[in-house]
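User: Structure with fe (iii) ion, tokens only please.
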Amino acid sequence: MAIDYQERIPNNVDLAENRTLQRALEHWQPEFLSWWKEMGPSDFLEREVYLRTAVSVDAKGWASYGYVQMPDYRWGIFLNEQDANRTIGFGDELGKPAWQQVPGEHRSTLRRLIVTQGDTEPASVEQQRLLGHTAPSLYDLRNLFQVNVEEGRHLWAMVYLLHAYFGRDGREEAEQLLERHSGDRNKPRILGTFNEPISDWLSFFMFTYFTDRDGKFQLKSLAESGFDPLARTCQFMLTEEAHHMFVGDTGIARVIRRSLEVMKELGTDDPQKIRAHGAVDLPTVQRYINFWFSSSLDLFGSESSSNAAAYFATGIKGRPDETKYEDHLALNQSYTLERPDGQGGITNEDVPLRNAMNEVTRGAYVKDCEIGLTRWNRTIQKAGYELKLSLPSTRFRRNIGTWAGITTDPAGKLITAAEFEAKKDSWLPSESDRTHVKSLMKAVTEPGKMAGWVAPPDRGINNNPVEYEYVKLH
Ligand code: BYC
Ligand code: FE
Ligand code: FE
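Assistant:
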């Protein structure tokens, strides 16, 4: 049976010539499809969705738009073009040729990182599987599905690496990526945030703003890897990631805009009145920010990590935008970390810079998160209100690292567990917040129409109007 691989699985990895890889993927692909049907977007599988598909890595081919039924989406395998002279950009191997094969001594570490990355991609699809039933517009429904198919493609990207470079144990890991499930008591996804339910659209916007942004920074670090196929894979994934964060950024902005409209109309900022009018009050937006930001911070790992130091030393995982730094060795330097002193105070501790790489990456992430807040606050200010949204302290509500289990207020001040308990409903989404947000989640399916809790977007997708029929439901 002759299969046109380029047609079925668009790729730039010579799949048509690689029999071993073909065999592995032919075995895995049906399992992926049944996973998609069972654990992916619930219903809508026969609907025509206006999606972008990557059919090549050049400017023309990476965003090709058209109506597709999701199970027919062409999940392709793309790596950025190879630079034959690429050398390792950091760590003890600085300047040596990048690895085109997996060095034996780094095999299990690389496999683990690829599996951890790969695990998050299908996890997010599982987390979002019911959202299609309550989309605030066809435009949003389409964006959800776009994000979902691309996270599916990111899974393919990691499975390609496992199949092509890790032999039999790679194939086994690839199968397990379809066997762990988000929130599953017995076989959960690897990282905490990916087991949190995303049952409403405000959470979806927060997730794509804050958690996909963790993806951006982790991918940037892996895009520096000495293992060249991993680096090139992540470089290409980053082009798609921008849209996911756009969905979050503009989604939150639209919720805020709608809230401000209602505040103006009613002449009040009383949350109860805003709610009664079918919008989301800004304090609730703040609590959702507090929840998803703190959860996403955990994804960077411990502040001081010997794993992170070893990844850097060996050339496996660099800093995001490593070329920006002058010194790529990061030796004989220290980084000052704060930690609780065990007596209710905070103390400083110097650790070798290499051990602090998770914190360096987290710091770059926090700065990037702030950009959206500045923009949203400008909108609020322009509307004539004083309220300012903010990111909570990086010490707030942490479950991983130095601050795990330490109770602080959103400003980062240490408080007792009892104080935290007493205040937590004003800092994190409460039952009543969630119930209210959930009550707003009703599907709007007429082209161009929006649910009452969210303002329309400024423009449509790929130069189409907002009223375009982005998903054909009939
Ligand atoms: N939950 O030294 P430590 C994305 C584990 S998002 C549970 O602190 P290390 C996407 C850690 O594995 C990007 N466990 O951490 C977004 C370690 O386990 P072992 C995902 C956690 O190793 C939206 C132990 O705790 N990509 O793409 O320096 C939609 C202590 O290790 C957590 C990656 O994460 C946690 N939050 O670094 C779709 C990149 N944090 O070894 C997709 C790959 C830590 O004791 N992963 N642990 O069993 C990595 O680079 C690293 O594994 C980490 C942690 C950054 C996660
Ligand atoms: Fe992804
Ligand atoms: Fe993403």
